């Protein structure tokens, strides 16, 4: 068990202990501001009157360093194709961020490189989210702590030793930190949800706000309730809407799923 250097103000991740929702837009905007706004509108309508505190999450990547020059425009690689087709300009992101705020959401961003951390600060995000694959990327984390933004860290794939190292480093340098259980399988089969990991995190890091980044299939309505019972109160979920061209993936929720 770790004695935390400083008790986190859990209100930074929601003004009460009620669930705080992180609704992940990711690339589901399909490179369209109008479609991204429709997704945000649908989320706002679905949550209207329910009393949840909620945020919309974006993803930032520095495309100048993300794709090797030799592969720019090579649509035979599905991830290159996906990233290039859904790329948004800073101005387009600003439109979506403004629209999310107008609908009453906080805004969160996952930066996948150091230049994107700087852009998170420049664009005035409320929260910063570290993806599981970067939770021991010390160069990125060093830039993250310079922001001192309230930070949520996903922990998918981390062994206990790496989990400890990441928490010690971040908790000593950030005033507001939360941990999020995550299984990096998209979608995650029911038998691999590993929700008991929340018990380990709760016991090992008392006082640290906990969350659950959900990638289970759309018709699994039990996992989030179990995670809540185990102490999570931050819940991240990909959101999407059918635009008639790209099907909704199996781990995103919509008003129809």
Keywords:
9 helices; alpha/beta; about 260 residues
Order of strands in the sheet with the most strands? 1-2-3-4-5-6-7-8
C-alpha end-to-end distance: 39 Å
Number of helical stretches of at least 4 residues: 9
- Class computed from helices, strands and strand pairing: alpha/beta
General form: globular
For the biggest sheet, the summary is: 8 strands, parallel, barrel
Helix content: 25-40%
Beta strand %: 15-25%
Low-confidence stretches: 1-11
DSSP summary, beta strand count: 9
The residue-averaged pLDDT reads 90
Encode the helix/strand succession as letters: EHEHHHEHEHEHEHEHEE
Explain what the structure shows.
- With 257 residues, the protein is an alpha/beta fold.
- 34% of the residues lie in helices and 18% in strands.
- The protein is built from nine helices and nine strands.
- It has helices at residues 33-47, 63-66, 78-85, 90-102, 114-122, 138-147, 160-173, 197-204, 223-229; strands spanning 20-24, 53-60, 106-111, 127-130, 151-154, 177-182, 210-214, 234-239, 252-253.
- The protein has an eight-stranded parallel β-barrel with strand order 1-2-3-4-5-6-7-8, surrounded by six helices.
- Strand 5, helix 7 (160-173) and strand 6 form a beta-alpha-beta unit.
- It is globular, with a radius of gyration of 18 Å.
- 35% of the residues are buried.
- Mean pLDDT is 90; it is low at 1-11.
Write the layout of secondary structure elements.
Layout: E1 20-24, H1 33-47, E2 53-60, H2 63-66, H3 78-85, H4 90-102, E3 106-111, H5 114-122, E4 127-130, H6 138-147, E5 151-154, H7 160-173, E6 177-182, H8 197-204, E7 210-214, H9 223-229, E8 234-239, E9 252-253
Parallel strand pairs: 1-2, 1-8, 2-3, 3-4, 4-5, 5-6, 6-7, 7-8, 8-9
Helix pairs in contact: 1-4, 5-6
């Amino acid at each position: 068990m770790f004695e935390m250097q400083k008790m986190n103000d859990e209100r930074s991740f929601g003004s009460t202990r009620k669930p705080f929702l992180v609704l992940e837009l990711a690339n589901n905007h399909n490179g369209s501001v109008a479609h991204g706004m429709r997704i945000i509108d649908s989320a706002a309508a679905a949550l209207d009157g329910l009393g949840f505190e909620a945020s919309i999450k974006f993803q930032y990547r520095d495309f100048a360093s993300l794709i090797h020059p030799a592969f720019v425009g090579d649509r035979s690689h599905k991830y290159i194709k996906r990233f290039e087709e859904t790329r948004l300009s800073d101005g387009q992101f600003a439109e979506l961020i403004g629209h999310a705020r107008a609908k009453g959401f906080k805004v969160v961003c996952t930066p996948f490189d150091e230049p994107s951390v700087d852009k998170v600060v420049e664009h005035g995000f409320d929260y910063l989210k570290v993806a599981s694959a970067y939770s021991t990327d010390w160069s990125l984390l060093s830039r993250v702590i310079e922001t001192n933004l309230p930070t949520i860290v996903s922990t998918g794939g981390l062994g206990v030793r790496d989990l400890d190292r990441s928490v010690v480093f971040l908790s000593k340098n950030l005033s507001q930190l939360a941990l999020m259980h995550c299984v990096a399988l998209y979608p995650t089969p029911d038998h691999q949800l590993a929700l008991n990991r929340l018990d380990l995190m709760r016991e090992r890091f008392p006082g640290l706000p906990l969350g659950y980044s959900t990638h289970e299939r759309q018709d699994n309505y039990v996992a989030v309730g179990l995670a809540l019972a185990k102490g999570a109160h931050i819940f991240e979920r990909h959101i999407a809407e059918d635009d008639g061209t790209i099907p909704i993936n199996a781990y995103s929720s919509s008003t129809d799923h």
